[in-house]
Amino acid sequence: MLELRQIRLAFGNLEVLRGIDLTVEDGEVLALLGPSGSGKSTLLRVVAGLQRADGGTVLWNGQDLTGVPPHRRNFGLMFQDYALFPHRSVGENVAFGLRMRRMDRREVESRVREVLDWVGLSEFQHRAVTNLSGGEQQRVALARSLAPEPQLLMLDEPLGSLDRVLRERLALELRGLLSDPAITGLYVTHDQEEAFTVADRVAIMNEGRIVQAGRPADLWFRPESEWVARFLGMRGLVEAEVAEGRALTPWGEFLLPEPSQNRPEGSRLTLILRPEALFLAGSAEEAATQKPSTLSGPVPKIQAPPLHLTGRVAALTFRDGRYRVMVQLERGPTLEVPLESQPGRRVPREPQPSKGPRSTTAPPQIGDSVRVGVRPELLTALGD
Amino acid sequence: MGRNRPRLSTPGSSGLIPETGRSSRFLRPLLRPLLFLIPAGFLGLLFLYPLGSILAVSLFPGGDFDYGAFADILRRPALRGAAWFTLWQAVLSTLLTLAAAMPAAYVFARYDFPGKSLARAAITVPFVLPTVVVGSAFLALLGPSGALPLDLSRSVWAILAAHVFYNYAVVVRTVGGLWAHLDPRAEEAARVLGAGRLRTLWEVTLPRLRPAIAAAAAIVFLFTFTSFGVIIILGGLRYATIEVEIYRQTVSYLNLSVAAALAVLQLAAVSLILLLYARYQERGIRQQHLRPAEQNSRRPRGPREWGFVAANLGFAAVFLGGPLLVLIERSVNTAEGYALTYYRSLGETGGTTLFVPPGEALRNSLLFGVSAMLVAVLIGVMAAVVVSYRRGPLARGFDMLLMLPLGTSAVTIGFGFLVAFDYPVDLRTSPVLIPLAHSLVAIPFVVRTTAPVMRSIRAPLRESAAMLGATPARVWREIDLPLVTRSALVGAAFALAISLGEFGATAFIVRPDTPTLPIAIFRLLGQPGSLNFGRAMAMSTVLMVVTAGAILLVERFRVGNTGEF
C-alpha cells in the first residue's frame, strides 16, 4: 500500500505540490488526472525517488522511503515517450531490469520471453527498438517496467503521444493487463476518458492540490466544485434560486431535481445541465400551435413542458452515430443537446433546404428557434 | 494478448532491493574534480601558458616594458603589407567561395539525383586534406613545371583558387544542410503572391539561409585569415600573410619580439571576428520551421534543371578533382615516362638535405598521429563529460576555454610552444611537444563530436535505468558509455587526420631528424631538381590517401547526423 502524507515541493517561488495526501491500495490502479502544470508528473517523480520533496513522507507498506534511492525502491516507471534504450534490442530492453537484479541468465531469458508473450510481442525479441510503431514501443516499455515485478507500477502519460483511435484501443488493453493479475498502479494523464477507462479510482489535481478523488462515476455525477465540473467538460453550470420546487435561473425556469426539492425557499445552488439532461422539445412555432412534439426522445411522456429554455440552433454536428445540436440559449450560453434517433426512424441524410412546410421528423436547421426541455431526474446540483 | 500471465510481486515485506557496492561512494568525491582538473590543467599548461608567454615576449622582450615591436609592425611596409594582404585575400577568398559553392548547396538541398550521397562525400575530401597537400596539388597544376601552360604559382590567383578549393565543402555542407531542411512551400507561397524568381531568392530564401551563410562565411574567413601552408608554398616571396611573417621573423630573422607582436595582433583580430560573429548570430536567432530533408528534395525536371545540376556537379568534379588527379599524375610522371621511381626513392636520403629518408617521415607521422589521437580522445572525452553533465558559469566558461584552440591559429600554438618551453627545462626540441600540439588542435573536434551525443542522452533514459534498479555507476556504464563510444571513435579518427596533416604548429617545434610527412613535403618542395619535386608529389599522394582513409573510417562510424562536424 502506498501512502503519501503532506507532500510539499516548490521550485523557487513556484509551489508545485501543496500538501498531497493520497493512498493507493494494493491491487488498485489510481489515476492522477489534471491539466498540464497541475503537478501530477512531479508527484510521480517524488514517489519514484527521482525528485526529493521539500516536506512530507512517502510510505510503502508503512515504511518511510525518504533517502531510498530510485534504483532500490523496486518501483516501475513507464515514461511518457517510453525512454527505450536505443542501443539495445527489444529483448535486451526488457531484460535490463532483470540483469540489474542479478538474475541468472537462463532465468532472464525465460522471463523476457514470458513477458513479451504476455504483451503480444513474442516475435519482436531481437528487433531494434528504433523502428517500432508507437503502439509497439508502448508495449515494450510496459513489458520492460513489468518484467522485474515491481511492487508499484507508475505510468506517466503512457498514451499521450498516440493518435485518438489507437489511444482508445490501448487504454482498454492496458486496463485488461493491469487488472488481471491486479497490479498496484499510479497512472498520470490529462485525458479524462483515459483515466476513467484505466483506473479504479481517479484523483483530480489542480495547482498542486488534489481537489477531488473517487470512483469515475462518483466524480462524474457528484463533482464537488465548479472547477471539477468544468474540468470534466460540463458547460451547463448555472446559479439557481429555489422557488416552489422550481429552479429560477438567469437562463429560464425548470423543475428541480428530487434531492434539492426540499431546500428552503429562496436558497441558492449551482445546477449542472449535462447534455443527457436536455432534450429538444420541438420548435418554437409548434409550441405556439400547441402540437405535441415527436422529437422528444425516449421519454415521450414529457410533452412540450411548460417549463423550458428557448434558443436558436447555432450548429449541428454528427458524431458516433447521432446528431448533436448546439443551441444558443436566448438568455444563456450555447449548450449541447443530443438529438436522439428513435427506433425505426431513419436518420435523415442531409438537412435539405426546406421547400414549403418542413416535416417535423427532420433535424432542426441552423437558425431555427427551438425549445430545450430539462429532465429533472438527470439534473444534479454541485455538492449534492 | 498473451496466454501466460506473469507472476507479480506479492505485497508485504519491505520489498526493496538491497544496497550493493559501496565503493563508488568513496571514489566519487575523488574522481569528479579530476575529471575537471586534468583537462583544465592540460589546457592551462599547453595553451594558456604559451599564449601568456607570447604576450610577455611581445611586450617585455628584454625583461623591461617595450612596445617597440608593435611600433615596428606599423613602421615597416613589409609587415604592414602582410597584415593588409591577410585581410583582403581572406575577404576575397570568402566571397569567391560563397559564389562558387552556393549553387551547389542549392543543388544538394533541393534535388535528388543518382549518386548523390557519394557526390556529397567526394566534395568533402578537399576540406580534410592537409594544407601542404593542397599547396602541392596547386603547384602541380599551376606551377612552373605544372600541368597548365601558364605559371600562376607566384600569383594571388593560385592562392585564391586553393582557398576556394579547400573551403568549397564548408559552404555546401553548412548552407546546404540548412537549405535541405527549409520547407520549399515558403518560396512557393511567395511565387503565388506574385514575386518573381530573383525577388523570391532575395526576399525569402536568402534571409532564411542567413544564419547558415553567416556561419559558413565566418568559418571560411577564419580559415583563410589564418592560412599558412597554402600561402607559404604558393605565395613565394611576394605574398605573405601574418602567419607566414610570424614564421619568417622567427626562423629566418630570429626576431622573436616582432613575431610575438604579430601573433598578439592576429589573436586580437581573430577574437574580434569571433565576437562580432557571435553578436550577429545572437541578434538573428529565430525559430524556423524545419522539415526532414527527404520531403524537400525531388528529381530535377526538364533539360533546364538537369542542366543546372550537371553544370554544378561538373564544375565540382573538374575544380576539386582536377588538382588532385594532376598531383597523382605528377607523382608517377618521370623523365622516363610513367613509373614509380619517386615512390621507390622515398626510402633514400640521396639528393636531399633531409637528415632522414623521406619514407621515415611517414613512420614519424603515424607515431605522432596515434599518440596525439590518444591524448586528444582522453582529454577531450573528460572535458566533454564536464561540459555536458554540469551546468552553471563554471561549465560554460570551461566550454569556451575548450573552444579557444579552434580560433587560435596553429602557427600561434607552435610559436607559443617555442617561446614557452625553454625554461626551466628546454623542451623545445623534445619530440613529445609535437603530439601534444597536435592534440591541442584536435581536442575541440573531439569535444564537439562527443558532447552533443552526451547531451542528447535524455534524462528519462537514465531515469528509467535507475527505476529498473541500476546504480548511478551502472547507469553510466550501461547507457552513457555505449552511446558515447561511437562518437568518441569519430573524434579519434578526426584527431588522427588532423595530426597527420598538421603543418603550422609542427613547423616551429619539429626537430630536423624527426620530420613529419607535411614537413618533409615542404622541405622537398623548397629544393631544386625534378627528383625532389616528384618525391614531394609522391609523398603528398601518400598523405592524401592516408588522411582520406582516416576520414572514410569516420563516415563508417558516424551514426545519423549527431555531432557538429
Q: What does this molecule look like?
A:
The complex is a heterodimer of chains A (384) and B (565). Chain A is α+β, with helices and mostly antiparallel strands and 384 residues long. Chain A has three domains: 2-231, Rossmann fold; 237-272, no CATH class; 275-342 and 364-375, OB fold (Dihydrolipoamide Acetyltransferase, E2P), CATH 2.40.50. Chain A is 24% helix and 31% strand. Chain A has helices spanning 40-48, 90-100, 105-118, 134-146, 164-179, 192-198, 216-221, 226-231, 258-261, 284-289; strands at 2-11, 14-24, 29-33, 55-60, 63-64, 75-78, 152-156, 185-189, 201-206, 209-214, 237-243, 246-249, 252-255, 268-272, 278-283, 309-319, 322-329, 334-339, 369-374, 380-381. In chain A, the strands form four sheets. Chain A has a six-stranded mixed sheet with strand order 6-7-8-3-9-10, sandwiched between helices. In chain A, a hairpin with a 2-residue loop joins strand 4 (55-60) and strand 5. In chain A, helix 5 (164-179) runs parallel beside helix 6. The longest helix of chain A is centred in the middle third of the chain and has 16 residues, at 164-179. Chain A is elongated and about 75 Å long. The two termini of chain A are 31 Å apart. Mean pLDDT of chain A is 83; it is low at 287-304 and 354-360. With 565 residues, chain B is an all-alpha fold. Chain B folds into two domains: 37-50 and 349-565, MetI-like (MetI-like fold); 67-339, MetI-like (MetI-like fold), CATH 1.10.3720. In chain B, 72% of the residues lie in helices and 1% in strands. Chain B contains 22 helices and two strands. Chain B has helices spanning 23-59, 68-75, 77-110, 116-128, 131-142, 156-181, 185-192, 197-225, 229-234, 242-251, 256-283, 302-332, 341-344, 358-389, 393-407, 410-420, 433-456, 459-467, 472-501, 506-509, 517-525, 530-557, and strands at residues 333-334, 337-338. Chain B has a two-stranded antiparallel sheet with strand order 1-2. In chain B, strand 1 and strand 2 form a beta hairpin. In chain B, helix 14 (358-389) packs parallel to helix 17. The radius of gyration of chain B is 26 Å and the shape is globular. The chains are: A alpha+beta (384), B mainly alpha (565). The A-B interface holds A 1, 26, 48, 50, 60-61, 63, 68-77, 79-81, 83, 85-87, 96-97, 100-101, 111, 114-115, 117-120, 122, 144-151, 173, 176-177, 180-181, 183-184 and B 1-9, 11-19, 458, 460-461, 463-472, 474, 478-479, 482-483.
